[in-house]
Amino acid sequence: MLIKNQNITIQSLALLSHADIQTDILRLDQLDPVISGNKWFKLQYPLLEARKQAATTLVSMGGAYSNHIAALAKAAADAGFKSLGLIRGDANTPLSHTLQAAHNRGMELQFISREAYRDKTTLRASYASDNHYWIEEGGYGILGANGAAEILADLDISRYTHIICALGTGTTLAGLIQSALPYQQVLGISVLKNQTDAREKTAALLPAERRDARWDVLHGFHCGGYAKHQPALLDHMRRLWASDGLPTDFVYTGKMTWAVEQLLHQSFFPAGSRLLLIHSGGLQGNHSLPPGTLPFS
User: Fold this and answer.
1) DSSP of 100-136, one letter per residue?
2) Domain of residue 212, residue span
3) Does the pLDDT value for residue 177 go beyond 60?
4) Would you say residue 5 has pLDDT above 70?
């Protein structure tokens, strides 16, 4: 394991705990202010592989508020790589907070039309080079999942019945499935609309012996789609901050905690359950909200 967990704490959440159900959250957001949360874990092995292949430039894809792009720019700079970010959509002036920070850390930004961006196979082929090392959008891949499998390393998780995370690419979920104990159920809360291939993409990252583990993907908490939000979601995030001082983002972690709150009201979890939520870090998306929308940055 290349990343040490000594800075990570487990925090109890009063807002999401009932008389017979205890909810805690693993504060991966405390690892680093930029390479935040699961990004540390998903990037560690791709960076090692890039070094092994003698690549000089890390190439990946993302949007204007991508946590992955922000983390990759800093990780590349810290490790002595150049970085190239292929950004979905047109260039806007000024750059988003996220892209400006990535640019300041040395990342070259190239803006890709939304149509071309959807054809990821062609896009990847067009940037193939002996000097380039390609990292899939969001860090998707077996190397990323192997890194995410170390999220729970050195932690005593034996008391928990459920491990829950937000689900984008499925990479973090796949890692957690690999490291969960046999009696624990691992749940991924999809943050995308109509993500019908979520199980398939997650299963593709699992070793054969873990595909029949206790895991599932839950839908219906996307608030209209990726990076979309509703007043009820933002209200939940404010209440969670007021109750527990927990900062969340409306793209990933906020939707996960909001989903858990609704599932508790629906009596989804059996009495006596102990839930461990994974704060995957990355609050970049919140910068797209009008100032003052949330009481934390």
Assistant:
1) HHHHHTTEEEEEE-HHHHH-HHHHHHHT--TTEEE--
2) 10-34+152-288
3) yes
4) no
